[in-house]
Amino acid sequence: MTQTGRPRGFDTDDALDRAMEVFWRHGYEGASLTELTAAMGINKPSLYAAFGNKEGLFRRVVARYADVEMAYARDALDQPTARDVAAALLRENAVALTRPDRPAGCLSIQGGTACGTDNAAIADFLAASRLTGENALAARFDRAVDEGDLAPEVDPTALARFLSVVTEGQAVHAAAGAPRAHLEQSAEIALHAFTAAAYPVR
Amino acid sequence: MTQTGRPRGFDTDDALDRAMEVFWRHGYEGASLTELTAAMGINKPSLYAAFGNKEGLFRRVVARYADVEMAYARDALDQPTARDVAAALLRENAVALTRPDRPAGCLSIQGGTACGTDNAAIADFLAASRLTGENALAARFDRAVDEGDLAPEVDPTALARFLSVVTEGQAVHAAAGAPRAHLEQSAEIALHAFTAAAYPVR
DNA sequence: CCTGTTCTGTACCGCTCGGTATGAAACGAA
DNA sequence: TTCGTTTCATACCGAGCGGTACAGAACAGG
What we know:
Chain A is an all-alpha fold.
């Protein structure tokens, strides 16, 4: 069906990328519609027509963030061994959190760890989004047990949880201005720990 | 000097504790003066007379939080060895983040990881507050090197940074609703990693 | 008692927030 | 050209924000 009416004057993905940077830098509540529309180059009615409301825009932004900015986390799952998965994840995480052309830290943490009473749904949504990644990691380690890469006595979900904790801590540190080298240093120590826990007999 | 005038109708520390819970739960920006004064049982003019303004109140709250709620972190530094310090810190951290009579997580993270443009000073203040703890930890590990507890080739600040990353990640996880057992599980894995990094020759 | 000082409660300020009514502008179809 | 449809820009809405003016109430000292 050919669309009728006046054509949209902006590209949706471009607008989402501009909005992403604002949410990333200021969080859900800290990002005002004034600042969002200014960054996106559109007016409020256009935003509401395209995305419903502020929360709808945020959810679209987070979905795009997961697609584009978190690709390295999905790619890490393709590594051949559990140790390689952990290494790729932690190292790429340190790089992603300190990209000079992006705000420091992670949208999923910066976006809404602390939200007002009414916006508790935002914090829950982000927590669920992070949990999805953690579960994917646990599933990958389950597979590693099946493949004989990990010993049967190790707990795949515990390993995934530990890596999730470290990546989130890295994000907090990065948002506070920690340089990439510091994060990489911590990543290597965490990797030692992961190896010790994942390959106990050695 | 005996004070003149009408006596204050509320206890400062009690009021700070009530305000702490509100900031802890909703963050700096998410906590409105209406909610704060309601929880503290006072009116806005009393708040402004006693604490200056919202930011002044928050700084007093954070100072009290560090004194009262973070005592376990200072106590951990008194452990005899670096490994015992790390163990006490990580384990007590897991407990503190999931106390049933407190909001989940940590005020220092929940309070203001993401703040609006004008309140960037709040995020910086909290980051500096966390860095103080990290530096105290590094100083403790420096001492451990001097005492021969840690080998000269280990990097005390790197160890402190790693523990700081883990505790902050635990705080994020706890705020998302993770149970205490999950945090303790991750703490043990991190402790393995710490031991491997801190006592390499072994 | 009266006076000076400090605190308390009410009622209010300007401002910004998220969200919207409205009419003009820009297209495809006929 | 005219129409139906969709998006655009302006201007506005009620509500809640952080912060304050003001007058009365509660104390100590004289």
